[in-house]
């Protein structure tokens, strides 16, 4: 299942470092097919973390193209990546922005992780902005079926992995039938 990412804000009473309780609202990201499913999933996920009463205050569609977890990172960063394309009709260069949510410890590491993620990209791109996201945690969708257990293990392995600076370029495994491609144009 490939749904959409929904940003859900959860309001609850939290105990701070000195033992005082205060009400806080934190955003979380869930993978779901609809607002209703997103609400159901965030309720389910938060029950495991919050023993007291909590309230879902807002749910909205998140504009992330991809989510990339990395090991030993505790914060999420929003990377704006501008893909460059040349418009042959007008003769101008066009930029299309996409947003990645990348896990890292600081902005420098977020930049390095974004570069690592974009290694296999065929076209030109720039990274005009990286900012720390308020997202506290990400909950991808897994149905619990056997074939999806492999997906869950892969996601958790990614979340537990550390990008290597000397990453090997990815080989494009997609094959196209020349006749089918020619017919589509």
List keywords for this structure.
185 residues; four-stranded mixed sheet; 4 helices
Produce a short descriptive summary.
This protein has 185 residues and is of the alpha/beta class.
Q: Termini separation (Å)? A: 30 Å
Biggest sheet, open or closed, and with what strands and sense? 4 strands, mixed
Overall body shape: elongated
Whole-angstrom Rg = 20 Å
For the residues shown, what is the average pLDDT?
82
What is the string of helix and strand elements? EEHEEEEHEEHH
Low-confidence stretches: 164-185
Strand order of the largest sheet: 3-1-2-8
Would you tell me the structural class of the helices and strands? Answer: alpha/beta
Strand and helix layout:
Elements: E1 4-15, E2 21-32, H1 35-49, E3 54-61, E4 66-68, E5 75-87, E6 92-104, H2 107-117, E7 125-132, E8 138-139, H3 146-159, H4 178-184
Parallel strand pairs: 2-8, 4-6
Antiparallel strand pairs: 1-2, 1-3, 5-6, 5-7
Polypeptide structure, described:
- The protein is α/β, with parallel strands linked by helices and 185 residues long.
- 25% of the residues lie in helices and 38% in strands.
- It contains 4 helices and 8 strands; from the N terminus they run ββαββββαββαα.
- The strands form 2 sheets. It has a 4-stranded mixed beta sheet, covered by helices on one side.
- The C terminus is likely disordered.
């Amino acid at each position: 299942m490939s749904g959409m990412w929904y940003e859900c804000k959860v309001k609850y009473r939290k105990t701070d470092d000195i033992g005082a309780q205060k009400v806080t609202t934190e955003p979380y990201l869930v993978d779901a097919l609809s607002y209703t499913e997103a609400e159901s999933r965030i309720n389910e996920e938060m029950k495991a973390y919050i023993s007291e009463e909590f309230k879902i205050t807002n749910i909205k569609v998140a504009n992330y193209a991809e989510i990339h977890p990395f090991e030993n990172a505790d914060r999420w960063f929003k990377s704006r990546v501008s893909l460059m394309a040349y418009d042959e009709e007008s003769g101008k260069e066009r930029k299309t922005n996409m947003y990645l949510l990348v896990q890292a410890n600081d902005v420098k590491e977020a930049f390095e992780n974004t570069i690592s993620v974009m290694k296999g990209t065929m076209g030109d791109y720039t990274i005009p902005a990286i900012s720390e996201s308020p997202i506290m945690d990400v909950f991808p969708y897994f149905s619990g079926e056997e074939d999806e257990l492999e997906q869950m293990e892969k996601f958790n392995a990614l979340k537990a992995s550390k990008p290597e600076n000397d990453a090997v370029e990815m080989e494009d495994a997609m094959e196209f039938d020349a006749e089918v491609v020619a017919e589509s144009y």
